[in-house]
Structure formats: C-alpha cells, structure tokens
Amino acid sequence: MRASGSAARMPWLGHVVAAGLFGVLLWIGGRELIEIVQSGWLPGRKGPGLSAGDHPVVFWAMIAFIGAGLACCAGVATVCAWSAFRAIFGRERSH
Hints:
Blueprint: H1 6-9, H2 13-39, E1 41-42, E2 50-51, H3 56-89
C-alpha cells in the first residue's frame, strides 16, 4: 500500500520543517542565554529573578541546565537536518 498525496512525493518535507523549527528555537534560546550571561540576571516568570552576584551557584547551575537543553535541541536539529539531507540526496536501498 502506497501513501498518497504530497507525503509520497516529498517524504523529506517533515524533516526539513522539524530541522527549521528546532533551528529557530535554538537561535532564540542562544540569544537569550547570551543576554542572561552578559547581564548576570535571570528574570523569573512568576517570581523574583536570580542575580549572579546574590546566588552565583544557583545562577550558574541554571545556566548549565539551559545550556544542556540548548545542546539537546542542537542535536535533534542536526539529526533532522541529516535525515532530510539523506532523504533528498541519498539513494534509497531496496531490500
């Protein structure tokens, strides 16, 4: 049974969209992280913010947590981009 519609003609499109979305999220998160490190202030959403001068250990722990999340996002974006690249330019192997 074959898929019909654009999914059959462009199976790589979902990978490209996912890689683009993760890339945009990575760009936004990276800019925010740089801004936080430069200012030394991590704003709180519903509570008080966190200053690097007042609580340095907690501040840098949060920065490390955010950085780890961005690294995971970069990894997923890379996998999606590589999958799309292989789907577009790679050869399909029939078994």
